[in-house]
Each structure stands twice: as C-alpha cells, then as structure tokens.
Amino acid sequence: MRFLLKTSYEQDLRLFRDAVQRNWYIALGLALLVLPALVPTYLVDISLVFIYGLCGVSLMVLAGYTGLVSLGHAAFLGIGAYAHVYFVQDLGLPWVISVALAAAVTAGAGVLVGLPALRMTGVYLSIATLAFALIIQEVLTRWERVTHGLKGRAVDKPVIFGVSLAHDAAFYFLCLAALIGGLWLTANLLRAPTGRAWVAIRDSEIAAQSMGVNRARYKTLAFAYSAALMGVAGALFAHKVGFLAPDIFSVLLSIQFLLMVVVGGLGSLHGALFGAAFVALLPVLISEARDRVPAWAGQVVALAGKDAGAAAFLGVDRFVKQPGLEPGLFGLILVLFILFEPLGVYGRWRKVQLYFSTFPLYKRATFRRQKTYMRSERLR
Amino acid sequence: MLQLLLNGLAVGCIYGLVALGFVLIYKATELVNFAQGDLMMLGAFTCYMFVVWYGAGYWLAVVLAVVTVALFGAALDSAVLRRVLGQPQFAVVMLTIGLGAIFRSFASIVWGSEIYTLPTPFSARATRIAGVTISHEYISIIAGTVILCAALYAFFTFTRVGVAMQAASQNQLAAYYMGIPVKRMFSLIWAISAGVAAIAGILLAPVSLIDINLGFLGLKAFAAAVLGGFGSIPGALAGGVTIGLIELFSGAYLPQGVKDVAAYVVLLVVLAIRPQGMFGTIARKKV
C-alpha cells in the first residue's frame, strides 16, 4: 500500500496526484500516438470514441459535477454541427474560426436554456431540456435555408490552414487533440474556484448559497461551458458522419450521452471517457456478435443433434438480426448499471484498486450508499 | 371550428390519461416514470393480441389487457423499482428510460415493427349533431376518460387504501410507522398507473395506429402533466385537454411544423414562468 504524504493544501489542487500518476498519463498519451500504426482498420471507430469522450466530458460537467441532468444534449451537438458546417461551407470561414464560432453559438444556446433552468430543479430540468431538444430538432428540420431540412447536407473533409485532413489517421489526431484540449481545460476548471462552486451547488444548493456562491451565475456558466464543449464535439461529429440530417440528433442520442455518463460513473472525468468508449464501441461489438453468435449457438446445440443445431442457428440468427434489439440492449445495460453498480465502471475500478491497495483489510461498507427515505417537498 | 374543438378534446383526453399515469406515480412515490408512454404502447399491443390473435371479444380483450399490464406494472415495481427506493431521483429517471427502451425492443421482437389497426365496436361510425360529425371513437375516448378520472378521484378521496396512499406519498417513514404497508402501496400504485396507461393505449388505438413508437406520445403527455402541475389529478386532465386543443388549433391556423412543437413550447414557457403549473403545490425546500 502506497501512502501519499500531504504537506500542503496546494497538493490537493494539483492536476496530477503525484509523479507516478503523471507518468502513467504520459505513457497512455504515447500509446495513443502509436495506436494508428497498430490498428489502422478501427481508426474511425476510435475517433468516434474521442468525439463521444468530448460529449461525455461536456455532460459530466453539467450532470456529474453541477447536478443538472440534461436530457437534451444531442440538441447542442446538432447546433454545433450545423453551425460549423454553415460557417465553413456557406460562409467560407477558416476551419479554426468556424469551430470557435460554432462553440460560441452553442454556448449562447446553452445560456438560453440555462437562464429559465435556474427556476427548475431535478426532474423538471430534465423534462425542460428534453422539450428544448425536441424543439431544436424540429427547427433543424424546418430551417431549410441553413440546414437543407430532411434532404440532409453533405460535409466536406476538414481543411485546417490549407492542410487537408482527409486521411483517417489525420482525423484521428485532430479528434485526439480536441479531446485532450477539452479534458485539460475541464480538469483545470474543476480544480479552480469555478469547479468547486459547481460541486458545491450539486451537493447542496442552499449550503452553497449560504457560503456565498452565486447560484445563478455558476449554473448558467455550467450550461454555457457544457454547451460550448458540445459545439466543438458537434463540429468534429459533422466531419465524422460526413452527412448531416436532423434525425441524427434525436432524443435517443441524448439518452446515449446520459448512458455514457452513468455507465462510466457520475462525477468523474475518467467515467466520461470509459462511458464514451463503451457507447461508441458497443455497436461495433454488437455487429461482430451478430455475425458470430448464431454459429456458436448452432455448434453448441449441435452436440445434442445435428438437426437441432441447424434449427438453433436459424432461430438465434433471426433473433439477433432484429432491428429493435440494439436500443433494448442499451436499455438493459443502463438498468443493470443503475441497479447493481450506480458508481459506474470508474466506481468499479476504484473498488478493485482499493481492494488490492488495502489487502486484506478491504471493507465493502466503504462504498455503501446511504438511503434517504423520501419526505414530500410538495406540501407545506 | 366546433369539429376542431371536439377532436382537440379527444386528443387532449389521451394526453390527459397518460399524464394521469405520470401524476399517480409521482403523487405516491415522487418518482417520474419516463416509461409511461411505453406502458401505453404495451397496453395497446396486448389488447390487439387478444382481439386478433386469440379472437377474444373487444370488451373481454380490454379487461384482459388492462389486467395483464397492471400486473406487469406491479411486478415491475416489486422486481426493479423497489431496489432504487431511497436513492436520488436521477437514478429512477435513468432506470425508467432504460426500461422504456427495453419495452420498445420487446414489442418489436414479439409483435414486429409493422403498424396495426385495432378493430373496435366504435370503428368507422359517426353521429351527426348540429352539423358536426362526431366519430364514435372520439366519444369513447372522452367518455372513458371522464369515467376513469371520476373513479380514481373517488378512490383517492374516499377509500382507506386511497388515503393510505396519500399518506405514503407525503412521508414514507411516517406512513410506515403508522402501519401502512408502504411497499405494497407502491406496487398497487404502479399497477393502477400501468392499468391507466393501458386504457389510454386501448382508447387511442382505433384513432392512431398501433406501432412500437406509440410511446413517444408520452413526451407530449409530460407537457400536460407539467401544465397541470405534477401531482394533481384534475390538473393532469385539464393540462392534457389544454395541450390537445393548443395542438389542433395551432395545426389549423399556424404555419406548418408549429403543431409538432406547440406542446413543448407550452411546456418550456410554463416551466419558466410558473413551474408549479396550474394546480400545483410545490413548496420551497426547508433546511
């Protein structure tokens, strides 16, 4: 077991806990730099992990750190994507300026949602953001002059400072750079007074206000910052999908973002990244499984008899090819995580870590959740 | 004009019924059930299954479907939702969203993703009164809603079980100490709410068609529930009717596309200006 000797309060505010942790991150960064050489076929999927990672960080700031659960984050992604494409392709602005403008536009939209959201709490806020997302989706459908409506619009490959990033590997590095930039900015914000204020608001609004935290200002700021990150992610997402249509940015995508945050583990940036990897790679895994599972099932049942094996193959094959299966699987995973591991993948990782570092003294009670039985707040 | 009013009333009644399901659960357990619309979809599909696959009579099928879905609701509560009792509200929101996705997936596997019509005794019949054509389907919706609401209102106000539910909703621990079986109350409320959702689905089925995305209507019912003030039974109904009327009139007089978002715009405006809704009672949290 390793003890960290703290000699000053400054140590609590460091970006990395100690030199060991910093070195691990550097190693991870180097691994990501050489990854394109190792798995060239999966580069597009991994780029999506990075983009979703940015989305996850964005929602984590809002839901995990400020306690404002948004059910409409796909709308911000959509605004960012369409704004970026409009600026680059219709107005002909340079790429970097266009992304910055797209982030500014989405931040504006975030403030627009955040201001009325000041009066709402809990579930009401989720419902309001859901309504906002549905309205934005309709606007994207109808505002044909900019969005080309249901016909959709094609997106060119990114060209930055005259350098075309059409190659998959180039796009991979662009997404990686954006993710690292976003993570660094967010980690710094979270260890600064702003992040402390957000966490204070999450844990108790009234206590935070009594300590002099300006609730309206920090909540709006959380919305604006989260939306701006989403805008940058949207710009990259537009290049990733290559073709924008309003129905991409549906409620289901918003729910996937929330799934990301919950599966990863609320209240940690690590969690957002774990969740992003999970949500972005699960469809890949599912499509792999679709090809292989029926054959396996057939082989297993064929041990009992050849005809039964063939029947099992056909049955399982028809079952896994159902189009409705994938959202159901997402739902099932969400339910299982909420029921059995509410701290998410990152929480599980922490438990494993603690188990080994305190072996043989690990106590399950360390992570026991406290239940609070409800007393209605509706009646005076 | 009058025609529009009647149709709006009928559509609004459906929103009201789904909203009623939200409100019942919120009233009793202070949880918001995002899977309510999907329970409605299950109700419609179950009724369709009894009528078309097994050849049951319409009324028998309605009773069977409502009972099935209500039992399912109770089972859902005791197997899944009871585990998250005492945890943050957010957990329940996510849980019910996940459940909704599972229900949709289940329906598409069992019944397929085609679109069905439910044959009913009211189908394709209409009465003309004072120059207005009223189809019997709409009458069935309005009448069914009124009867159901009256019954529920009486249940909550006059029966012992209903009052016990109200007690459980106000303070779980205190109700438990007073000898109210809080867990059983919660299962019961889930059963009632699922049953109401099933009735809404069955009433809606002849007007709109049955498919697996019927549940997304639940999103508009949120608007109704919020407008009425989450937690008020007459409010849910009034909210539903208001939303239904706004939707149909905006469809008739305002530019295309407004109809689809009217409910959400109303929802946002209500939340921003008067979060407690028309009949709501939300108190400030005291420390």
Walk me through the structure:
The complex is a heterodimer of chains A (380) and B (287). Helices cover 71% and strands 2% of the residues of chain A. By secondary structure, chain A is an all-alpha fold. Chain A folds into 2 domains: 41-250 and 266-280, no CATH class; 285-367, no CATH class. Chain A has a two-stranded antiparallel sheet. Chain A has a two-stranded antiparallel ribbon with strand order 2-3. The longest helix of chain A is centred in the C-terminal third of the chain and has 34 residues, at 269-302. Chain B has one domain. Chain B contains 11 helices and 2 strands; from the N terminus they run H-H-H-H-E-E-H-H-H-H-H-H-H. Chain B has helices spanning 2-29, 36-53, 58-79, 89-110, 136-158, 160-170, 172-177, 182-204, 217-228, 233-253, 258-273, and strands at residues 126-129, 132-135. Chain B has a two-stranded antiparallel ribbon with strand order 1-2.
What is the structure about, briefly put?
Chain A is mainly α. Chain A is built from 15 helices and four strands.
